[in-house]
Fold these 4 entries.
Entry 1:
Amino acid sequence: MPMAELTLPDDVRLHIEAHGPADAPVTVVLLHGWCQDRRTWQHQVAAMRVLGARRPRVITYDTRGHGRSGATRLAGATLAQLGDDLAEVLRRYAPTGPIVLGGHSLGGMTIMEYAAAHPTTFADRVAGLLFVSTTAEGHTHTQYGLPSRLAALMRAGETVGAGLLARSGAWCPHRALLPALRPAVRWLLFGDECDDEALELAMRAFGRAPLRSVGGFRASIGTQQRLETLAALADVPAAVLVGSRDRLTPPACARSIAGALPFADLSVLSGAGHMLPLERPQEVSAALTGIVERVTPARRRVKRRAATQLKKAA
């Protein structure tokens, strides 16, 4: 598994991993969620290895201020910056050929920012989309699974706390508190069932996120509005997945995304929470595989030949 480091224009260093053949017909780029890292997608990366001749090249990377990537300045802790970071990753590691973009939570929002800021390149290159447990409407639908008044109080407290954390620097004192935080993380991120290994992975990723990242991205996450951006991508094949018990990006978020993308397949996974790539890896992998197979050039040529033959026969 080749690993690389990409230094961005503002000198932030990204940790990047590439899987699969460099000359693959399609490149898949997977973006993780807030306070997580590239390992969120480990099951989907493994699933791509068994596609044989249709196997894509898969690129995963740690977002700035997450995982093994470098810390971000507070001014860089925005969704707009993450969209530009994605553009740089694609320019360097996937300069040609069709691309499938997959985003979980913050990663999905990053894809929307990339589409808004780089519409021409997006239209030319992006052949398929996978949106998992994400939103195009900030915190509009976020209720944390609580009654409206309690949710409003929790959101207000979270917003104030995020502002304080954002100014606390690039250190991780909460790592020592992980055992005490475990029940809260379990409740917030997972649904009815939770595999211990999945929870541990999520906890370790959270423990590596600097306080500036924990708090700094909150403002732009809460205010993003990108349904119009998605509506402009109407002809892109897409899959949208959400857990029925997602407390951060509930099913209403996924329904609005699917409503803006008429070629999107919507799946609401009963009993699942926010961490679908780890909670329901088979369903997420199947959705990603379906998108890859639909956009693989050889497969599309076969379909066009079949359509031509049908027309001649008629």
Entry 2:
Amino acid sequence: MDLLVLGGTAWLGAQVVRTAVTRGHTITTMARARSGPPPSGVRFVRGDRSRVEAYPAGRFDAVIDVARDPALVTTALDALADRVGHWLFVSSCSVYADQSVPGGDETSPLLPALIGDYSDEQYGEAKVRCEQLIRDRMGQDRCFIARSGLIAGPGDSTDRTGYWPLRFAHPATDDGAVLIPDAPNQPVQWIDVRDLADWLVAAAEAALAGTFDAAGPATSFADHLTTVRSVTGHSGPVVAAAPTWLTEHGVAAWSGPRSLPIWLPDDYAGMLGRRAEEAAAAGLHTRPWSHTIADVLAWELQTGPGRVRRAGVSPDDERQLLAGRS
């Protein structure tokens, strides 16, 4: 199979390339290579995706695209639609209009499609527009849309999925106490980056069509942390703080500096609780939760546990917050 990966140097794209190479396919990647070095063993085209003439020549059996800007999807379609057999697009579960109730599926109402220029504040709306453009140009039977949930695994540069394994493995306090949000019943759901890449390549091989929520089985926040503690061997105190107390003390939810990652406000309770049955029926296989956690921890330790993180509470901040709870 001749496969074109638009990107291929960042986290998911690079994993897709590695998977496709392992499965014996001929790979071309196109990127600016700002997220990392070009992958080895593939044809690499350095180019600006906003220019039609920058795209590689030739015909391809399939394209795998992870774009978030509809303008770049439009340019890619203009350049490639007539010489590509199948279009695989990584969308997001952020496309759904109501994230408050767990158990939603692919039929749930969507946000309005983005009109105008892309902004991060309208990420979900932009992905909706990207999906529309691909379906309109390629037709339903020539496109595969994977609405990804939270992506986890080694290499997670957002630092969300590695925060809890690293903190429980290396607590900030002498007694091993770890601060957590008091949200035991919140759903937690993710897809390992390697499982998502495997499924994307398999879908390209099979010319699979349709729209799917790409996520693994959901668990509760309490069970998630229980698994993390089991993998890391943590036996110290676990200190639960009410969401209101955390907010009052400047601790954010979900992601970013001074946050407790993967914790979500109540009005986003369904964001990590999609049904995801259609993807499983279409061949998405997910590894055990504990395997991803162990591999993420190994990557965190190799990368350097003392580095400045993009998400989480620093050890100094956690010690101060825990002192305020006593």
Entry 3:
Amino acid sequence: MQLSERHQEYWRKNLRITAVLLAIWFVVTFVVIYFAPQLNEIVIMGFPFAFYMAAQGSLIIYVLIIWFYARRMDQLDNEYGVQEGEE
């Protein structure tokens, strides 16, 4: 099956969004832990920053990533006419 240019454009936008969000996920998950000793010098409400990110901050960012992806993909689906509709 040959995909139309419109389908390919939709897929490219989907992959771009996914790549950006995966990069954010990678930074929050691995880079923050890698630099934990340096980040512990920053204190937020009495807790070192690396501890805060491990305990709360990363979880909040994960939820925001999921929310943003769902919202943006819904917009793209509507824009390209591939939304899940009620039949």
Entry 4:
Amino acid sequence: MREKRDEILILRITKTEKNRIYEKMYGMGIRSLSAYIRKMALDGYCLNLDLPQLRRMSYLLQNCSNNLNQVAKRVNESNQLYAADIEDLRHRLDELIGIGKQILSKLSEL
């Protein structure tokens, strides 16, 4: 169960500091000041992982799961499994594995 956030912390800053905080926050793509300040205070840094490979991988995973569901439905209805369906799934999974390796490679460079 998630711990309730019921404590308040008051922080005094200058207008210039506030502007810099917001610039950095928006630069990271974070829209919640509370989340940004909490992350920075607790961990000391925020990472903005905008990897196009992650979006591609997510898209392929969604396609793969849809195709697998369609194949399972067809097999349950007709008791037939087609080699083309398996080959298509194998091709998509191979592409997912390749993208996963690219992502891991980029993350290891950080």
